[in-house]
Design goal:
Structural class: alpha+beta
Low-confidence stretches: 42-46
Mean pLDDT: 77
Shape: elongated
Strand content: 25-35%
Number of strands: 8
Order of helices and strands: HHEEEEEEEE
Largest sheet: 5 strands, antiparallel
Radius of gyration: 28 Å
Length: 144
């Protein structure tokens, strides 16, 4: 019988706690935080993978001792079908798409206000993507 009375006390305590406004408010806050956390995880997992880009530097002073240069982060670029999507607030780039023979098959200027560039649908296969910004250049590989 002691187990039954202990279980009855827990049930009656939880039942009474449901009607206590302070406890109910705390429970609602916890449920809201749980819902927001799950929503964030779902949103993050639905994001596209960015194109992995390498960085390089055109050094006009090469052979002359050069000059110090700081690291730069590659831009964040996504590809979906034939649309390249750039993160907001990026600098201006010159975009080159090269085939396997290093021949430029498409080029355009990506202004700092542009967030998307639609590539020609006639392109098909594996290509190298190049983004040039002043002395910096970024390259990676895409499949269309």
């Amino acid at each position: 019988m002691p187990c039954f009375s202990f279980a009855a006390q827990i049930i009656s305590h939880n039942f009474a706690a449901m009607f206590n406004p302070l406890i109910r408010k705390a429970m609602l806050k916890k449920l809201l935080l749980l819902y927001i956390s799950l929503l964030c995880v779902t949103t993050l997992s639905a994001q596209k993978d960015s194109i992995p880009l390498n960085a390089g530097y055109f050094d006009p002073y090469e052979g002359l001792g050069g000059h110090p240069r700081g690291p730069v982060d590659p831009p964040t670029v996504y590809l979906e079908n034939y649309t390249l999507t750039f993160a907001a607030n990026h600098p201006e780039y010159v975009l080159y798409i090269k085939d396997e023979n290093e021949t430029v098959v498409y080029s355009t200027v990506v202004t700092s206000a542009a967030t998307e560039v639609v590539l020609p649908s006639t392109l098909s296969g594996n290509y190298e993507i190049n983004l040039v910004m002043n002395e910096w250049y970024f390259w990676g590989h895409i499949e269309l």
